[in-house]
Amino acid sequence: MAHVRLRLFAAARDAAGRANDELDAETLGDALAAARHAYGDQFANVLDAARVWVNGDEPPEGERAALRDGDEIAVVPPVSGGAR
Length: 84
Prior knowledge:
This protein is α+β, with helices and mostly antiparallel strands.
Protein backbone atom coordinates (compact mmCIF):
# COMPACT_ATOMS: atom_id res chain seq x y z
CA MET A 1 0.00 0.00 0.00
CA ALA A 2 1.36 3.40 -0.99
CA HIS A 3 0.90 6.70 0.81
CA VAL A 4 0.03 9.30 -1.85
CA ARG A 5 -1.04 12.93 -2.09
CA LEU A 6 -4.30 13.89 -3.80
CA ARG A 7 -4.50 17.38 -5.31
CA LEU A 8 -7.89 18.70 -6.36
CA PHE A 9 -8.48 21.65 -8.67
CA ALA A 10 -11.44 23.89 -9.61
CA ALA A 11 -14.81 22.06 -9.40
CA ALA A 12 -13.16 18.97 -7.86
CA ARG A 13 -11.79 21.14 -5.04
CA ASP A 14 -15.19 22.79 -4.56
CA ALA A 15 -17.06 19.46 -4.50
CA ALA A 16 -14.62 17.90 -2.02
CA GLY A 17 -14.35 20.99 0.16
CA ARG A 18 -10.55 20.80 0.15
CA ALA A 19 -7.61 21.21 -2.20
CA ASN A 20 -5.38 18.42 -0.88
CA ASP A 21 -5.62 15.11 0.90
CA GLU A 22 -3.46 12.10 1.64
CA LEU A 23 -4.54 8.53 0.94
CA ASP A 24 -3.23 5.00 1.19
CA ALA A 25 -3.93 2.95 -1.95
CA GLU A 26 -2.35 0.29 -4.13
CA THR A 27 -3.69 1.53 -7.47
CA LEU A 28 -5.04 4.74 -8.96
CA GLY A 29 -8.47 3.12 -9.08
CA ASP A 30 -8.30 2.36 -5.35
CA ALA A 31 -7.35 5.97 -4.60
CA LEU A 32 -10.17 7.36 -6.74
CA ALA A 33 -12.69 4.97 -5.18
CA ALA A 34 -11.62 6.15 -1.72
CA ALA A 35 -12.01 9.78 -2.80
CA ARG A 36 -15.47 9.10 -4.27
CA HIS A 37 -16.51 7.47 -1.00
CA ALA A 38 -15.03 10.26 1.15
CA TYR A 39 -16.38 13.22 -0.84
CA GLY A 40 -19.73 11.94 -2.15
CA ASP A 41 -21.83 12.06 -5.29
CA GLN A 42 -21.09 15.64 -6.34
CA PHE A 43 -17.36 14.89 -6.33
CA ALA A 44 -17.95 11.59 -8.16
CA ASN A 45 -19.83 13.47 -10.91
CA VAL A 46 -16.96 15.94 -11.31
CA LEU A 47 -14.43 13.11 -11.30
CA ASP A 48 -16.28 11.36 -14.16
CA ALA A 49 -15.45 14.30 -16.47
CA ALA A 50 -12.01 15.15 -15.05
CA ARG A 51 -8.52 14.31 -16.23
CA VAL A 52 -6.46 12.44 -13.68
CA TRP A 53 -2.69 12.60 -13.65
CA VAL A 54 -0.13 10.73 -11.59
CA ASN A 55 3.08 12.69 -11.11
CA GLY A 56 2.15 15.06 -13.94
CA ASP A 57 1.19 12.47 -16.58
CA GLU A 58 -1.91 10.51 -17.52
CA PRO A 59 -0.96 6.90 -16.74
CA PRO A 60 -1.27 4.61 -19.77
CA GLU A 61 -2.64 1.88 -17.47
CA GLY A 62 -5.49 4.15 -16.38
CA GLU A 63 -6.99 3.23 -13.04
CA ARG A 64 -4.91 0.02 -12.95
CA ALA A 65 -1.75 2.13 -12.51
CA ALA A 66 0.22 1.00 -9.46
CA LEU A 67 1.06 3.71 -6.95
CA ARG A 68 4.26 4.23 -4.97
CA ASP A 69 4.87 6.14 -1.75
CA GLY A 70 5.05 9.85 -2.47
CA ASP A 71 3.13 9.78 -5.76
CA GLU A 72 0.93 12.77 -6.46
CA ILE A 73 -2.51 12.36 -8.03
CA ALA A 74 -4.03 15.48 -9.60
CA VAL A 75 -7.73 15.72 -10.47
CA VAL A 76 -8.26 18.44 -13.08
CA PRO A 77 -11.85 19.01 -14.24
CA PRO A 78 -12.55 20.54 -17.66
CA VAL A 79 -12.32 24.32 -17.62
CA SER A 80 -15.49 26.17 -18.54
CA GLY A 81 -16.02 29.79 -19.41
CA GLY A 82 -13.37 31.97 -20.98
CA ALA A 83 -13.29 35.11 -23.09
CA ARG A 84 -16.42 36.15 -24.89
